[in-house]
Structure formats: structure tokens, C-alpha cells
Specification:
Elements (H helix, E strand, L loop, with lengths): L22 E4 L2 E4 L2 E2 H8 L3 E5 H14 L5 E6 L6 H10 L2 E4 L2 H9 L7 E3 L6 H10 L3 E4 L2 H14 L3 E8 L22 E2 L3 H10 L3 E7 L10 H19 L7 E3 L16 H12 L5 E4 L3 H4 L3 E13 L2 E6 L8 H5 L5 E3 L6 E7 L8 E9 L6 E4 L20 E6 L2 E6 L4 H4 L13
Parallel strand pairs: 4-20, 5-6, 5-13, 6-7, 7-8, 8-9, 9-10, 9-11, 11-12, 12-13, 15-17
Antiparallel strand pairs: 1-2, 2-3, 4-14, 14-15, 14-19, 16-19, 17-18, 20-21
Helix pairs in contact: 2-3, 5-6, 8-9
The structure holds pyridoxal-5'-phosphate.
Length: 440
């Protein structure tokens, strides 16, 4: 098996043509498309997540075009970023979505996606969530165990429906991802049906009266830079498709290869979409199935910055610290995944410093960057933390009772708040000042 590496272009290009970056300097000051980040910060305050709609459009259209020779549907994964404004951009482009909870299903429907636009997945769907998905008429539910199949069959029976089922297969392939928490398709992972058990689960779906097998699915990991995992995983799915066919099941319509395409945060090589598409076309086209894809990070990872203001600068134990008004509560990726995010001062400077950029949260693990050589900055300066479009706001928390920041979408020369900054009242909205005691 040749080891095909993604792209050779580094940050800035993917396959043919320059990637839309969305962020550039105008007279030394960073702008998102046609809007100055200083202006946005003045208007909405910090911390603020600022998203470029043209980056979202660029990545979706680029992927869609690369897959043009394969019958396919792109279902954007809400878990990466479920901002209403971003969903509106993708809806307008004709994307479908992939959701993993009742909450994401609710958001997708509110954003205008029809049931047939929605795939429903997740390792631990509750009975209530499955019922909501079936009532919404989702295109498919990706199941992860035989017991889930039985539960769906019962619920679908009560609703008088036949549930469209995809089986999420654990293809048990090795992937080369940046962190162990984002590998999901190796032997022993909690996700998916173990490879050897898939034919049995397929037969179960086929014989139960209220389920119909329409897809095999995999999702092998995230932030992937090599084709091998997709090629190996798809080959494994093809083996199963052959076995299932031999067992007399002929209802398959889709082969779902999941998400996982990597993006550049630093100097990683961007995916060569043409090589990716060619490798998949060779395998998927002969099956006559429609390929589904569930990208998250690839679509939105590079579309956003987190704007944060430096509160204090201090020196301790021989190190310089910049204390910012954003931290792990706004972006947990540095502390949770050891992730690198580029940081620049919004107003350009030639001076450099080496610092730990830390947040205001009472945790030693609260940092945005450690020992980073970066633009010199001090109190009052505005910083842009790059590439927070995926797994940024969606993983934000209220720890230390910090209201979540505001989200802004830029489109050309205009911008809009698409999600207001939380207020203190939001933090206590569900609290019961006068608890209604019940007998135990
Ligand atoms: C089932 C499934 N599909 C798609 C995705 C999206 O992955 P990515 O953002 O790496 O494209 C994930 C992410 O964890 C996932 O679990």
C-alpha cells in the first residue's frame, strides 16, 4: 500500500489554488474580510469569536468540487461549530448536517435543515433522542451497537415507521492523528460496532420489522493528514459490503466515510483533496453507492479567530506572562489536546517577546500558549488567537461563572452578532432560589 501524504503545499494552499484565508492586515491592523478586528472589538467587546463566512464557503465548495466525480453528499458536523450564522451559510450552499445529540438536532431544525438533510449519530443516544430523530424524519441514524438497533426498532414500531439505519463500523485501522483523544477507529475504541460483529448486526437490522439497513459508516479520527486511514478504512467497509451482499441484504444506498480531514494550525501540510477524492472514487464508484462525508474541522477550523485583550503583563520565575481576558473557558484545545494556535497582536509590531499567554481562570492548566515567541504585547493590547472555528465556542464553559463570549459573523464589509455574549442572569437562569422540596 503506497503511503500517500496529503498535499505538499503547507499553509495557504490546498491542491490547486490559494485557500481563502479571511484574515489579512490593512495598514498594519488585522481585518476579517473587509472589517477591522479593532472595530469589532470596540463594538462587541472581548472575548469575541469572529468568523469569516467566505472561509466557510471556500472550504465547502472546494471539498464539494473535489468530490464532483463521486456521487456524494456533504453533511457538515455540527459538533465542530453549531453557530446559527455558520449554519445559515452552509444551508444556503446546499449542505446537509450531521448531529450527535437532541440539542444539535434542535439547532439544525431551527436553522432550516429538513429531516432528510440530517444524519444522526453518536455513541450514546437516549431513547428520547432517538424518538426525536425518527419523528424529525432524519435521513439516517448511525447505530453503534446491537442493543441500540433493538431500541430503535421498538421506537420505530410504536411510531409506525421503518427507521433508516447506518451501521457505524469500527474499521480497526491505525491513524496518524495529533492526539490520542481524536483517534476513534482503532481496535478497542468506544466508538462503532467492532468489525467482526458488523455482519451479525447488519442481519439484525435486516430481519427486524421496523429497521432498514441503508449505510455503512466509519469515522476514524480527526485532524488527519494522511490518506492511509481513509483508504484502509474504506477497504474494510468494502469487505463488509461484499459480505452483507452475499448474505442477501441488498438495501444499501450509502457509504459514509465520516469526517476527519485536517487543517493547518501551524505549518502542517494541508490535505490534497484531489488525491483524496481520487483514492475514494476508485473504491466507492464501483459500488454504485452514494458517498457521505461528515466534515467538521475542515469546513470551519480556519474560519475564526478569538479576540482577547491583554489584562496584565507580569514576570514570575524567570518567565513573562500575558494574562488575557480569554482562557480555557473560551478555548480548551491548548490545555485539553496540547493544541497549537497561532497568536498575533491585532495592531502590528516589529517587537517580539517570549511569553506564556494565560487566562483568568483559577487553574494552572488555563493557558492559550506556553513559552511562545510572539508579538510583543502589554495591557490593553488586542490579540487574535487563530483557527478557533472548530471545537472553540462549542467546547466553551462557564467555569468560574464566566459568561460565554460573543460570536460574530463577517460577510464582506459587514458583520453581525450571531450569538450574544452571555450575561450574569444567564448563568443563574435555571437556578431555584426557592427549591420545591419533594418527599423522598
Ligand atoms: C461521527 C463523527 N463524524 C464527524 C466528525 C467530524 O470530525 P472532524 O471535525 O475532524 O471533521 C466527528 C468528530 O469527532 C465525529 O465523531
Amino acid at each position: 500500500m503506497p503511503q500517500v501524504w496529503y498535499g505538499v503545499h503547507g499553509r495557504g494552499t490546498v491542491g490547486e489554488g490559494v485557500l481563502t484565508s479571511g484574515f489579512s492586515r490593512v495598514d498594519g491592523t488585522l481585518s476579517c474580510e473587509g472589517v477591522s478586528l479593532e472595530r469589532i472589538a470596540e463594538e462587541v467587546g472581548t472575548p469575541a469569536y469572529v468568523y469569516s463566512s467566505s472561509v466557510v464557503r471556500d472550504r465547502y465548495q472546494r471539498l464539494d468540487a473535489a468530490l464532483a466525480n463521486i456521487p456524494h453528499r456533504i453533511h457538515y458536523t455540527l459538533k465542530a461549530n453549531s453557530n446559527r450564522g455558520i449554519l445559515a451559510v452552509l444551508h444556503e450552499l446546499g449542505a446537509g448536517v450531521d448531529v450527535v445529540s437532541g440539542g444539535e438536532l434542535f439547532r439544525a431544525k431551527r436553522a432550516g435543515f429538513a429531516g432528510s438533510d440530517i444524519l444522526f449519530g453518536g455513541v450514546g443516544k437516549s431513547q428520547a433522542e432517538l424518538k426525536e430523530a425518527l419523528q424529525a424524519g432524519v435521513r439516517m441514524i448511525n447505530v453503534e451497537s446491537a442493543s441500540e438497533v433493538r431500541m430503535i426498532n421498538d421506537i420505530a414500531g410504536e411510531l409506525g415507521l421503518v427507521a433508516p439505519i447506518g451501521i457505524r463500523v469500527n474499521p480497526e485501522v491505525t491513524v496518524d492523528s495529533s492526539h490520542k483523544y481524536i483517534k476513534t477507529g482503532e481496535k478497542g475504541a468506544k466508538f462503532g460496532v467492532p468489525f467482526d460483529e458488523v455482519p451479525g448486526v447488519a442481519m439484525l437490522v435486516a430481519v427486524l420489522p421496523n429497521t432498514r439497513l441503508i449505510a455503512l459508516d466509519m469515522h476514524i479520527g480527526s485532524q488527519l493528514f494522511r490518506l492511509d486511514g481513509y483508504v484502509d478504512g474504506t477497504n474494510r467497509l468494502l469487505e463488509l459490503i461484499a459480505q452483507i451482499g452475499e448474505a442477501g441484504i441488498s438495501t444499501l444506498e450509502y457509504l459514509d466515510i465520516g469526517g476527519g480531514l485536517g487543517v493547518a494550525y501551524d505549518d502542517e501540510k494541508s490535505p490534497d483533496l484531489d488525491a483524496f477524492a481520487a483514492a475514494l472514487a476508485e473504491r466507492v464508484t464501483p459500488t454504485g453507492l452514494t458517498m457521505l462525508m461528515e466534515p467538521g474541522r475542515f469546513i470551519v477550523g480556519n474560519c475564526g479567530v478569538l479576540l482577547t485583550r491583554v489584562l496584565y503583563r507580569k514576570h514570575s520565575g524567570g518567565r513573562d506572562f500575558l494574562v488575557t481576558d480569554a482562557g480555557m473557558t473560551e478555548l480548551i484545545r491548548p490545555s485539553h489536546y496540547d493544541a497549537y494556535h497561532r497568536i498575533e497582536r491585532v495592531r502590528a509590531t516589529e517587537s517580539r517577546m517570549t511569553a506564556d499567554v494565560v487566562g483568568p481562570v483559577c487553574e494552572s492548566g488555563d493557558f492559550l500558549a506556553l513559552d511562545r515567541t510572539m508579538d510583543e504585547a502589554g495591557p490593553g493590547d488586542l490579540l487574535a488567537v487563530y483557527d478557533v472555528g472548530a471545537y472553540g465556542y462549542v467546547m466553551a464553559s462557564n467555569y468560574n461563572s464566566r459568561p460565554r463570549g460573543v460570536e460574530v459573523l463577517v460577510d464582506g464589509d459587514r458583520f453581525a452578532i450571531t450569538n450574544e455574549r452571555e450575561r450574569y442572569e444567564d448563568l443563574v437562569r435555571l437556578e431555584q432560589a426557592d427549591p420545591q422540596w419533594r418527599d423522598g
